[in-house]
Amino acid sequence: MKSVKIMPSKLRGTINVPPSKSMAHRVVICGGLGAGKSSISNIDLSDDLTATIEGMRALGSEIEKSSSGFIINGAEFLDNANAAFTNVIDCNESGTTLRLLIPISLTKENSVVFTGRGNLGKRPLDLYYEIFEKHGISYEYEKDGLNLKIKGSMKPGEYKIRGDISSQFISGLLLALPLLDGDSKITVTTDMESRGYIDLTIDMQKRFGIDIQQSKSREFYIKGRQIYKPTDYAVEGDFSQGAFYLVAGALGNDIKCKGLNIDSLQGDKAVLGIIEAMGGKVETKGGYIQAYGADTQGTVIDGSQFPDIIPILAVLGALSRGTTKIVNAGRLRIKECDRLKAICEGLRNLGADIRELEDGLIINGRKSLDGGIADSWNDHRIAMSLAIASTRCKDAVTIRNSHAVKKSYPGFWNDFKSLGGNADEWNMG
Ligand SMILES: O=C(O)C1=C[C@@H](OP(=O)(O)O)[C@@H](O)[C@H](O)C1
Ligand SMILES: C=C(OP(=O)(O)O)C(=O)O
């Protein structure tokens, strides 16, 4: 367990925003299913992505390091139609790995064990259990502990699924169904939350030659017997991570973000519009995006479509004039930790006026915060949000469990220091 002590200072400089974790998961999966070799570049080996790489290897994909990233050969998996092997896939703490690889592992008659750590065993999987029951797939798991054992295979046909628990279930089905030997349809039975991630899945599949048709926004048609055609792909910058530096900019730090694609489909690009709606200024020029310090004011933020940037937007609210209300964000409670509770407790420890609602937060902004001791709750996005909050604190900020950042952004503390952040990390044993 590590802790970090930060002496407040302004951040200044240019940052190469790390590659998108969500897009990297998808390119590894599509490449890993491909009939031939794909070359993927601009990869950051976070714990989550490592879990997906190892998971695809366990399913038979060959994934080798190259000078710019990885060469992936999925042919082995496709040839393995009749293999009855028992695989163990360790998802670590990655919800994306777990929910995207479960359906893929069931495109062949298969027997797989999914394991994980941290909060992963407590995060919902019921939508898949309902599908397993309909398809005669046997499954058993330890309550709250995962260790999910499944045996069987999915059949083509009609899939009805809720869209308001996690988009990852829909992404998982979309990735797997084209490989079945018949056509399928997915009907989403509720409003779709985190919709942008579904668009990312379909976009990546298209790059690998997979066609998903949509008639109405809640219906997807998937032809069977499709083939993932290998392709080469460089992963673009991650708006979920860029959001920390963009909010930092709006809070008065001077940071140029390189590597972000302004035309990206990533839902977390919404951070740009929210900064502007709160009175900040965002500029895109010369290959970078920068947000500028401003007297930002509170607003209402709907968290249903971009849950991952809500903790850092709460930091912006805590340091903006007036009241910021976060609404429709109940799903933050089923991430790596209960993120509503964690960011509320963390920011309050630093002196913010913030209160938890059942599915959101109410924040009355202050000009600056005091500083103090807060915990990441073993959640990368909480640790990084508190680090950015420190830039507007009067006194030192200590963040316990600071190592959590490695789930998505192992280089965060180095990058923070490269911008002039005065952070001292030490091991608590
Ligand atoms: O598919 C993805 O890459 C992700 C989907 C989102 O989850 P939900 O759909 O559960 O909101 C997001 O929170 C997660 O970090 C990554
Ligand atoms: C929730 C996250 O990831 P996952 O769902 O893949 O665990 C995240 O990265 O914030």
From TrEMBL:
InterPro entries: Enolpyruvate_Tfrase_dom, Enolpyruvate_Tfrase_sf, EPSP_synthase, EPSP_synthase_CS, RNA3'P_cycl/enolpyr_Trfase_a/b. It catalyses: 3-phosphoshikimate + phosphoenolpyruvate = 5-O-(1-carboxyvinyl)-3-phosphoshikimate + phosphate. It is found in: Cytoplasm. It holds the Pfam family EPSP_synthase. It comes from the Bacteria. Pathway: Metabolic intermediate biosynthesis; chorismate biosynthesis; chorismate from D-erythrose 4-phosphate and phosphoenolpyruvate: step 6/7. PANTHER family: AROM/DEHYDROQUINATE SYNTHASE, PENTAFUNCTIONAL AROM POLYPEPTIDE. Monomer. NCBIfam families: aroA. This is 3-phosphoshikimate 1-carboxyvinyltransferase. It comes from Lutispora saccharofermentans.
